Amino acid sequence: MANAHLPNSHPQVTPDWKPWPFTQPSFLESIETTKLAGFDGNRYSGTVPPAWCASNGRGMAANAGWCLSMLLKTARKYCRDKYGDNVPSDALTAHIDLLAPVPPGLFHVALQSHDAGSRQKLVKAELMSPFADKTTVYAAVQIRTGILEENIKTESIQAADRPLPDKTNDCGRLVNSAFFYYNPPSASMRYYCPNDGESILWSPKFGGRSARDQWFKLDDDGLLQLEHIPLIVDLIPDIPYNHLKGGLANSKYWLPSLSLTLHFRSNLKGREWLLTRTDMRKLHNGRYDLNIQVLDEEGNIVATCVRTSAMIPTRSSKQSSL
């Protein structure tokens, strides 16, 4: 990890780095939203920066992870604006279904809440275009809020699993200039994966060809927060790349996320590193699920996720290259 302190854009890390034609605001700045007047406190607005979009084959669009991160922050703000500090607003679970590409530029979020017991709320939200004459709903979201960590005296059980890969002794840095250029959000993280196999994308020792253990660290050397988790689970290079000829360089398929379902297990409390442990059980009929655990450096589960994606041949692809 001799170059772990260097950003992805450094020539010693990515010699063929290609700069973008735009600047990238910080992630936490990019997911800020503002309450709009005239909607009974139930609508917020924000802007998708081009630097937080990725190529979707026809243009640039925000990915599901960025959208859900923004909506987590907006839902917390909405609960505090609507109910004050008397109602807990920690995210417990979150689900997003992408319905249409989310383009760069202005958007609106329409929210409503329902009681879920005496101390929890279920927030439903729609991410939509801001145009009153022709509204497009880009995503539908549900977020359950409450108290993430309570002093409840019950057993705490976590099933035993394989050891975590050592960042220094077991791993190498994953870099790919095309991946960073066509998916600018991916360059916001530094990635380390076990390097004992024929490709850094998969490891015979840590899970096999249909799995990946991957360490994440912010490229600006900041500390990770809960809002980063949806972004992280959506930045994991898709497991089908482990099987495709050329790995990340394979351009015969577009692999968009269709939905994310997250369960938050504990407070993040400003971590420098997180590990994702990802498994794919089956790819069939152009669809697959990734089962993801997010762990801290002590091996404690911070969150779990199911990410559903599609595998779509690009126009230039005539046959499978699996």
Automatic annotation (TrEMBL):
Domain Acyl-CoA thioesterase-like C-terminal: 206-309
InterPro entries in UniProt: ACOT8-like_C, Acyl-CoA_hotdog, HotDog_dom_sf, Sec_Metab_Biosynth-Assoc
Entry superkingdom: Eukaryota
Coiled-coil intervals: none
Xref: PANTHER family: CHROMOSOME 23, WHOLE GENOME SHOTGUN SEQUENCE (PTHR38110), THIOESTERASE-LIKE SUPERFAMILY-DOMAIN-CONTAINING PROTEIN (PTHR38110:SF4)
Protein name: Acyl-CoA thioesterase-like C-terminal domain-containing protein
Organism encoding this protein: Stachybotrys chlorohalonatus (strain IBT 40285)
The organism's taxonomic lineage, starting at the top: Eukaryota, Fungi, Dikarya, Ascomycota, Pezizomycotina
